[in-house]
Request: fold
Amino acid sequence: MIPRSCHSIPFYLLSLFIILTSCKKLNTDLLAVNAMTSSKKEQTPQSTEQLPVKPLSEDFKNYWYNGDAEITSYSLEQARYGELRSGTAVMIYVTEPFLPGKQVKADRNSSENISVLKLNATKNFTTGIYPYSIMSSTFYPVQDNQHALKVTASIQEWCGQVYTQLNNRDSFEVVSHSYFEKEGDQDISLEKTYLENELWNKIRINPEDLPVDKLNVIPSMEYMRLVHQPIKAYEAFASIKKNDELTTYTLSYPGLKRTLQINFSNSFPYTIESWTDTYPSGYGPNTKFLTTKASKIKTLKTPYWRQNGNEDVSLRNSLGL
Reply:
């Protein structure tokens, strides 16, 4: 409190007293915030809605922090233009340090880094004479306490290419580039909600905590670009069914007439064994409901980034690619 005799203090001294006491309180508050941030480095300005940090099991640490990536190949039947196309899909899971400010892979150790389980997912197939190449990357915190920090997706084919990127900051910041006139270049801000892309990472970390029942979900970036739907959240219904060996996670979007089913093993490391994705494919009178299907061929645990010589081609052949 200011003393009763303050009226006798010159105005400039009184002002200085108020500023100094205010700054002291501000600095104390900032130190408290910094201490909390240092003790839990997952709490960053870019991710304001977080749950408590979840401890990692010894099985998780031994499997995901042994210096290898997990590479799984799949045979693929992809719905496109009202027909099913044969191809291959690959999922590459690996842990790495992520720099939340720049939202990129960290080049060096830092207390600011967040450990993420990254999924690079690829698809390759042909439609008639020309090929399709699809890739998405999802960076999801291993502590499973917030949404994916970043999602990217690109599609290349002979007509052109499209690219979409979502950054988890105060909101979901999305940039999208397309050669189609009605899509073009877009900058979108979305409220945070579940991302279909992140669910594939969440399965590998903590499938018991997958969201169920009625949800608002942003569908996968790949799907929205293939069917030219607006990038936004859609109402969905999710359920889990556990069988003897596999668990099936089903995500249905009534408004999109789409149902995704992911089949994964019941026990750690919860490997993705197969999936189906059913929705209308084609345009006009050629539109029909088709089901994209993928089934596992083989899994390798290996540091693939070191295996880029001609002598390493046999490893690719072993994946059936």
User: Anything to note?
Assistant: Helices lie at 11-39, 58-64, 196-205, 221-226, 313-318. Confidence is low (pLDDT under 50) at residues 1-48. Residues 50 and 306 are 35 Å apart (CA to CA). The chain has two domains: 12-39, 58-318.
